[in-house]
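Got a spare moment? Tell me how you read both lines of this record:
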Amino acid sequence: MIYEGKAITVKEIEGGILQLNFDLEGESVNKFNRQTIEDLKAAVEAIQGQNGVKGLVLTSSKDVFIVGADITEFTDTFKLPEEELVAANIQVNKIFSSVEDLPFPTVAAINGIALGGGFEVCLTCDYRVMSEKAKVGLPEVKLGIYPGWGGTVRLPRIIGADNAIEWICATKEKKAPVALKEGAVDAVVAPEKLLDAAVDLVKRAAEGELDYQARRAEKTGKLLLNPMESMMVFETAKGFIAGQTKGQYPAPIEAIKAMQKHAGMTRDKALEVEAKGFAKMAKTSIAESLIGLFLNDQLLKKKAKEMPKTEPVKKAAVLGAGIMGGGIAYQSALKGTPIIMKDINQAGIDLGLSEANKLLAKRVDKGRMKAADAGKVLNNIIPALTYSEFGDVDVIVEAVVENPKVKKAVLAEVEGLVSEDTIITSNTSTISIDLLAADLKRPENFLGMHFFNPVHMMPLVEIIRGKKTSDEAVAKVVAYAQAMGKTPVVVNDCPGFLVNRVLFPYFGGFAGLLRDGADFQKVDKVMEKFGWPMGPAYLLDVVGMDTAVHANEVMAEGFPDRMKADYKSAMQVLFENDRYGQKNDKGFYAYELDRKGKPKKTADESVYELIKDVVGEAKDFSDEEIIERVMVPMCIETVRCLEEGIVEDPAEADMGLIFGIGFPPFRGGALRYIDSMGLDKFCEIADKYADLGKLYHPTEKMREMAKKGEKYFG
């Protein structure tokens, strides 16, 4: 053994060919943490001290090659002063460059996922061989940063600037055939032939058959673009990406700028440019929010794993077909869990099957699924007008009309027809789980499972625990949600649960703005610029004015001190005039189908006449005031959910808002948004609107935390 560390070993495998193997001790995957970086430095120094070396192969003992840098270390590292962060990156790059500068050919044998720093170390090698099952990529801009260990320098010189821009800015993981076609790897082989293929490449290069030094010179030299080509490639890309990101995600643009700036430089100078730009991005609040989002997601997955072990759901059922029931059935069947779709009439069944069939057809049309596989998925949806096949169902999702009397009747009926072990859930969006459980014989086996529409697109499922719900039932439904490809957030019962409880104060702030003379179209534009996928008026149209009015009544009854308005809102007027939004093509806006069959929003001036009696004299509110008046109520209500134990921790609250209602990811969620400005500043802003009512009153604990300088995310 030439070198043996906690993350890396080096040994001779045959005739002067060495193997540098990644195998991080105590971890299921390899990642670039401090230990791995220290080991790599020591390993290269040990290799440099060897005589008679003909070549080096980089390998991994784990199923993945290297998943990337250890993101859990980012939060501390990024707190360093900018100049120290630049220096730290340059130090890592010196280690990576020492691999690249070894006086013999090097080959990376990529057996599994190699992302971020894991792929950047592969780029230091002269050649790359990839398993058919592996994936590679540079996804750093998802975290508000860009590749900082040579990715923006080496990749353009290997695959061309235009391809490199697409790899870095689109962040997609590239499968082996694409990586080979675009020149990022030199060969793709079966997994069992990977090491042999890598060794063969080393031998051919060492014997002079392959000119590895010419390859290396291209990679460490200037980018081969003349000034006109450079301008065309980079300026065109910046314009396109700016249109895609709308100025809300700066990292992709900054990555292109870095590549453009160091295109005419050799490696070491180019790496300095990259390091400075990387540090600049790492210090932004956007990077802090997006890294926090990633860590929050990891926390949710960890909490799900820590739940009581449970048998997987082998068969499910949904009560109530239609669009929502069809969407739930589709998602379950698509992910491999057969599901009965029951309705009281054939028309409902037909609508549900039509919805599932439509979604499958889209997958086939886009080449994401073969027609035969789509047929198998559809066969996993079992239509039913009776309960005859419910004897062996593990989990039932009730998705009938949002009416407590109807739901209670259906739940009582199905409970009497299934086994004592069957878990029954309700897809209610607002009705109390404890209320629905009141007449059930086995309330310990009952809980909420709230899907968001459209089911196939929205990643969140709220799992609502009632007072008598058992831990086993929660664990079973969490596991089922994960099996469906969803992110479950467990919350306790209250009106609106987490997402709707927090959403309606946002709508309340919007309603107050309209009452005071704001133009709803301007409010929408300001909030979309803020980062929401759609403004509040547009969102109400998508939700449905009838649904929103009903939910608002539930919220007002549950929290009358702050959610019961003393005025008639524009939303109520539109509802009373049968303007339900997209579902009947008229709400705040009018809708018509575009070429793709999707509803297209257009302005409808008649709305202003319709709501004139419930809105004040027209007033031009500033963007800042609009943002504050809709965001402050939402943020305070999120804090209340945390303080009251509706959610256990800030991560769950923020992830619920991001995955459930499209809270701008680059702002990290309501609680991280508060942290970004500081609680003292937030309370100061809220106090400006204290006369608007309790929706704008921070809690006492918020004020205490503000005095102490505390944050929700330490």
User: Anything to note?
Assistant: The radius of gyration is 28 Å. The chain has a mean pLDDT of 94.
